[in-house]
Amino acid sequence: MELCISSVNELGKAAENILNYAGEERVFLFFGEMGAGKTTLIKQLCQALGVTDTASSPTFSIVNEYNSTNGVVFHFDFYRLKHETEALDLGYEDYFYSGNYCFIEWPEKIPNLLPNKSVTVKISVNDNEERIISANKN
User: Fold this and answer.
1) For residue 46, what are the CA distances in angstroms to 77, 101, 108?
2) CATH number of the domain that residue 22 is part of
3) What is the mean pLDDT of residues 105-120?
4) What's the average model confidence in pLDDT over 18-26?
5) Are 74 and 53 in contact (CB under 8 A)?
6) Measured on CA atoms in the order 95, 97, 100, 105, is the torsion positive or negative?
7) Strands (E), 14-57
8) How many domains, in total, are found in the chain?
9) What is the dihedral of CA 48, 51, 53, 57, to 10 degrees?
10) 114 pLDDT exceeds 90?
């Protein structure tokens, strides 16, 4: 699945499309350069899932937990991790295999710990500053 987003106003519909495409999958891996819009898209996904908390980047806390009408949603940001062992110490398995939605920014920091079943979401920025969002089930 691929989407071209030219305005922040289009992100709500994009989030719905991604969730529909994902079906029963609950783990999402977000790839993209710094500033591409990973956190902004995750905020829209949270809104589409009925999150009642304010979604924000967990850069310093590594994981944020949000309540939603669809259960708990976990939002990870592994940007500051130096080693995969830091995710082990966090108890990542309890989150990733909980059956709850898990949105993971910077999954490339923990390549050996990622679940086999997930949705990869790649965000890139083209010359017109549009966001190209592609999603693929793994």
Assistant:
1) 15, 9, 22
2) 3.40.50.300
3) 95
4) 96
5) no
6) positive
7) 27-31
8) 1
9) -60
10) yes
Could you identify the residue written with the tokens 């920025």? 125
| Alpha-carbon distances, residue 21 vs 35, 40, 97, 137 (angstroms) | 24, 19, 20, 9
For residue 96 the two structure tokens come to 């990733």
Three-state DSSP state, 68: strand
Which tokens hold the place of 29? 């891996």
The answer to whether residues 101 and 73 touch, using CB atoms and an 8 Å cutoff, is yes
Range of the domain at 70: 2-137
Chain center to CA of 40: 10
Using one digit for the tens of pLDDT, what is the confidence trace for 55-98?
777 766 789 999 998 899 999 999 989 999 888 888 899 999 99
Strand partners of residue 119 = 28, 137
Written as one letter, the residue type at 61 is S
* Positions of E strands within the chain: 2-5, 27-31, 63-68, 71-77, 101-105, 119-125, 131-137
